[in-house]
Amino acid sequence: MVIKMEVLYKSTRNDEKKVLASQAILKGLSEDGGLFVPEHIPALDKPFKEMADMSYQEIAYEVMKLFLTDFTEEELKSCINKAYDSKFDTEEIAPLAEADNAYYLELFHGATIAFKDMALSILPHLMITAAKKNHVKEEIVILTATSGDTGKAALAGFADVEGTKIIVFYPKNGVSPIQEKQMVTQKGNNTFVIGIHGNFDDAQTGVKNIFSDKELEQTMLQKGYRFSSANSINIGRLVPQIVYYVYAYAKLQQNGKIADGEEMNVVVPTGNFGNILAAFYAKNMGVPIAKLICASNENKVLYDFFRTGSYDRNREFMLTSSPSMDILISSNLERLIYRIAGNDAEKNAEFMTALSQTGQYRITKEMSGQLADFYGNYASEQETAARIKELYEKTGYVIDTHTAVASAVCQKYREETGDTRKTVIASTASPFKFTRSVMNAIDSKYDSMTDFELVDELSRLANVKVPNAIEEIRTAPVVHDTVCEKEEMKQTVEKILGVL
Ligand SMILES: *Cc1c(COP(=O)(O)O)cnc(C)c1O
């Protein structure tokens, strides 16, 4: 009998309370406004030689069992098998495509063709299991702010899941036409989609305020509801995202692309800092990752942070062709700040208070010294478009705008440093999700075509079948048309739940 070491979770803003993984998943955000972090990051307990031949689902189990220690083997495997099934259009789940001296880790083969599916296809199952384990009787209401991709992926994950409702807020004029169509055509009696007059940060702030509204929480409990979050701050999203970095390394090894123990770099197109944080956790678990390359678009708050040690959100918010990265407050960065502050909740809380009061904070020299494995850079709109065109013309491979930001930053990094390590680029969306920007980058002559004409043209050009997720919305009727002011988000939620 092996005695299992329980991994406990604590808040980045409070050292005292510790909770089990299932409780952290149910809560989403800690009551003090902090994010849950594991007390320590567990090490992989199987060698890559052994994992090289494993399936995605098997590797998922190897990684997740180490973090979600209060789930039984049966519970975890059941969640994994329900999540990573035929909703994905390839058995590989996250295939690697080699193009122009890099490996594109395609994280967009799930139901909504963006990388959010990697975590959001499993989160509902983890949450329902967690609710059962903790004898939760209330209905779970998922509240989510989205910059476009999370919303649809969460809707798809939670639609018609018994014991749950899901309410999604998105910036009315801040998502792509296909992203919007995907959301407003969402089926399921428990799904609610609301556009707000404001940007993503407004939506995220509104949701955070609702979460921390104690009075509302009490009213909700009386009515039999309990809020939870599907945003990337939930460790139930973070942990499944670690899996594909382990998987990528195992597959590179299986295919003879990388030697055992040889280091690779990863490049991640970054918004809320969830995906790259997962790569950082993977590195800490023992995946041989040298550099974590953080790629931003023109909202380059993270680039400035890595360069200067100063995080400053006081700047103009840009709408770019990579809307899922149009973010000025990268929530998950808090987990890294907490860590480089020496896991000091009090110190971290000071930085976060400064951020909410003045919009900025500056880390110490000592803290900056711990960021040597990170490299930050950004790509302008023009550089992003040029990279899509260049890669297509050179190799025939078509990438989306977010992935192109990463690919352009990868080039900058290599030019700057001469680093020739093997590189995995997180490919976070299918080009079919951002068809207009992608096609315009390739040739301005496409400008006059309709969205769906462009879809067919892209399919011809890239020699890739139109994904189901796109076929479905060609003719689907709009079923959600609510729009509200950013100040009305709370009332809108109360109205939906009938608690006014
Ligand atoms: C969400 C998203 C990102 C940003 O990921 P974070 O984890 O928020 O940094 C990048 N690209 C796409 C396509 C996304 O949907």
Structural account:
- The N and C termini lie far apart (53 Å).
- The chain is α/β, with parallel strands linked by helices and 500 residues long.
- Helix 3 (56-67) crosses helix 11 and helix 17 crosses helix 18.
- The strands form 4 sheets. The protein has a 6-stranded mixed sheet, with helices on both faces.
- Strand 4 (96-99) and strand 5 (102-106) form a beta hairpin.
- It is globular and about 60 Å long.
- It has helices at 21-27, 48-51, 56-67, 73-83, 116-120, 123-133, 149-158, 177-184, 200-211, 214-222, 235-254, 274-285, 301-308, 333-340, 345-358, 365-368, 381-395, 401-417, 435-442, 451-462, 468-473, 489-497; strands at 9-11, 14-19, 36-38, 96-99, 102-106, 139-145, 164-171, 191-197, 225-229, 264-269, 289-296, 310-312, 360-362, 374-378, 422-427, 482-485.
- The protein has 22 helices and 16 strands.
- It binds pyridoxal-5'-phosphate (PLP).
Features:
single chain; 500 residues; alpha/beta; six-stranded mixed β-sheet; five-stranded parallel β-sheet; 22 helices; 44% helix; 17% strand; globular; binds pyridoxal-5'-phosphate
Count of distinct strands: 16
Strand order of the largest sheet: 4-5-15-10-11-14
Helix content: 40-55%
Mean pLDDT: 95
As a percent range, the share of strand residues is 15-25%
End-to-end distance: 53 Å
Count up the helices.
22
- Structural class given helices, strands, pairing? alpha/beta
